[in-house]
Amino acid sequence: MTSLLSSAAQVATRHRASSSASSLAAPPAPQHTNHPSHSPPIPTPTHSTNRIRSGSQSSSHIPFSTSAPSFSNLFHAGDRSSRHLSLESDQNENTSTSTLPQVTSLSIEFEGGTHVIIRPNRIVRGKVVLEAAERMHVTRIRIKFRAEESAMVKVEEGGGDNRGEWVHQVITTFFETDWKLWGNDSSNYSQSGWDDLEAGHYEFPFALKFPNVNYPPSMEEPSGFAIRYIWTAQADGPALQSGTKSREYITPYRPIIISTPGKGTSKKKCYTA
């Protein structure tokens, strides 16, 4: 009888295995990815223009738990997942807001950075970068290239009380051209339409071939005299109104120099400045 009571007590003191419950991991909030439509490339022999919109994110797959939750913990798990989902959505909104640019700007990035040198028959590659702080109405985006010679001289003129120094400046433009990287062509008989660009980061690659023509080399001397090869980018607004512009980028130009034959020689040699 005593052994039966002790065995019953042992059975009574055994605790039942409690079922462990873990909450189901909530998937992250969906991210909307808007890729602007591609536009025709620039009319150059070698080119590549693709408008790239950054900020796209792909939601990662989160595996679900294999242990089944109990009925009593199911409500707590739902509360935790809802709080987790709301916190994650707030974080995503803060992250997307912080990545947007504060000021709308336009810039040019050359392949090779600051070491790019222009030569005859050479291809210049790079991209125009647009940082849009808000929605923009854009007709087209262009890159402009020009070569100019600037001469400035200081002259003393007048006599007596009217005597003073005057600065005279003469600018001679060798050439000036532009290429459309994206948007609609201008027309003399109809108003060009525009597209809406949402706030974000855009890139417009380009590849432009310099003609096989010798122009004067770049120089910044003597004082008051300069020959410069200048690049700028511009985003035209509705009705081709002047919109956002980039700063001027000056790149050095080195022509091909052909030496004259010396005495006793009949061959010509080519050099680059």
UniProtKB/TrEMBL annotation:
Top-rank lineage group of the source organism: Eukaryota
Compositionally biased residues, Low complexity: 18-37
Compositionally biased tracts (Polar residues): 1-10, 51-73
Occurrences of domain Arrestin-like N-terminal (ranges): 110-241
Transmembrane segments: none
Annotated Gene Ontology cellular component terms: cytoplasm
GO terms, biological process: protein transport
Start and end residues of each stretch annotated as Disordered: 1-77
Residues spanning the signal sequence: none
Name of one Pfam family that matches: Arrestin_N
Protein name: Arrestin-like N-terminal domain-containing protein
